[in-house]
Amino acid sequence: MRPVQIAAIVLLAVCVALPQGSAAQSLTFSLFERYLESLRQQAGIPGLSAAIVQNRSIVWERGFGLQDVERSIAATPSTPYVVGGLTETFSSVLLLTCVERGSLLLDDPIRRWTSAIPEQSATVRHVLAHASSGSPGAAFRYDPSRYAALSPVVDDCLDQPFRKALAQTVLDRLGMADSVPGQDVGDASNGDRTHFDQGSLERYAAVLSRLATPYRVDRSSGRATRSDYPPRTLNAATGLISTVRDLARYDAALDDRSLLRETLPLAWSNMVSSGGTTLPFGLGWFVQRYNADRIVWHFGLSPDSFSSLVLKVPDRNLTLILLANSDGLSATFSLADGDVTRSLFATLFLRLVV
Questions:
Q1: I want to staple 213 with a disulfide (CB 3.0 to 4.6 A). Which of 68, 236, 249, 350 is the partner?
Q2: 3-state secondary structure of 153
Q3: For helices 344-352 and 22-43, what crossing angle results, to 10°?
Q4: What average pLDDT does this structure show over 281-289?
Q5: What are phi and psi of 307, to 5 degrees?
Q6: What beta strand segments (E) does 224-305 contain?
């Protein structure tokens, strides 16, 4: 049994004996912080930012390690990271906004907007649920390249480029001032810059100047070396830059239904295959059970550079947000298969805090 698994069992026993009330919560967060730091060190993650949101407010947040090792800059809750696959949840919000406005039907064929999905019967719903491969609707297969094909659907149904729609509909609306719609928006040659005023471009530049440095970690030695940033472009599957504090704003807006109303339960419900099998994905989110609780989650994995995890327990109004500047949060846990309990980071949270 791994040391962290033993630690999680010990923590569970401790939690049973905890007193009730705020003192218990404070002790729980203190223990969670201690063991999260131990996990970070074991995974060789140079810098990690974390937050727990409860009842739409941050109740705990911390930075661990360094966002820039060479310059000894500490990671904090306001450190920006490339969040990778968490971008998919934002794309889901944009598309379901179109559904609520009546400008999109989930069962519209995806071929109306792109030839990137060759299956003729594939629909927007199938792509959103990662169920478009082979016989659409028959099985789940996590494939970000297919999900990226939803970008032109957003362009059309919101009548503006995906990047601008993301900024206007979510980031600006929620005051996510430390989030950037794609690292490439900082490139002077990027034509999409014309969609933003000078003040926004200057703010994006300031955030990008603080962006966490990516690292490649040797699995045997644990040594971290500076790596390259992942592709800088933004699409429906990846590219958003954000912080745990900004993602907490996003999380709260989801929970209070200020972003989505009638379609949010659909996003957080498992899709059922054409053969009657329950799939591990809804519309933009993984969905599964943990004991008696429904958990809704997503992850990001940019090999040798960044990783991320958002884990929600909707019925408890409780969310964990983790961002890292190596792939250590996700690379070794096969999260694309749809079981978040494979993650030691998720398991620590579920056993101790939930």
A1: 68
A2: helix
A3: 170
A4: 98
A5: -155, 160
A6: 224-226, 241-242, 286-290, 293-302
CB within 8 Å of 1: residues ≥ 6 apart: none
What is d(CA 343, CA 332) in angstroms, rounded to the nearest whole number?
8
**How many angstroms separate the CA atoms of 349 and 344, rounded?**
9
d(CA 312, CA 264): 13
**Residue 351 three-state SS:** helix
Please give the full DSSP string across 182-242, using - where no structure is assigned. -GGGG-TT-GGGGGS-HHHHHHHHHHHTTPPPPEEE-TTT--EEE-PPPP----SSS--EE
Longest CA span, the chain? 59
AA identity, residue 218: D
For residue 81, give both structure tokens.
Answer: 């990271």
The amino acid at residue 211 is L
Stretch among 20-24, 118-122, 285-289 having the lowest mean pLDDT: 20-24
| Main-chain dihedrals φ then ψ at residue 291, nearest 5 degrees | 55, -120
Task: Output the DSSP codes for 19-68.
Answer: PSSHHHHHHHHHHHHHHHHHHHHHHT-SEEEEEEEETTEEEEEEEEEEEE
**Dihedral pair phi/psi, residue 345, rounded to 5°:** -65, -45
Tokens for 52? 């727990």
For residue 315, the Cα-to-chain-centroid distance in whole angstroms is 19
Task: Say which residue the tokens 């300031």 belong to.
Answer: 206
What domains are there in the chain, each with its CATH number? Answer: 3-352 (3.40.710.10)
Q: How far apart are CA 332 and CA 327, in angstroms?
A: 9
Q: Which amino acid is at 350?
A: L
Instruction: Report the C-alpha gap between 138 and 169 in whole angstroms.
Output: 32
Determine the straight-line distance between the first and last CA of the chain, rounded to whole angstroms: 23
- Hey, which residues does 289 pair with through a beta bridge? 294
Which sign does the torsion angle of CA 26, 351, 278, 94 carry?
positive
pLDDT digits (tens, 9 = 90+) for 298-337: 999 999 999 999 999 999 999 999 999 999 999 999 999 9
Query: What tokens appear for 347 in the block?
Result: 């398991």
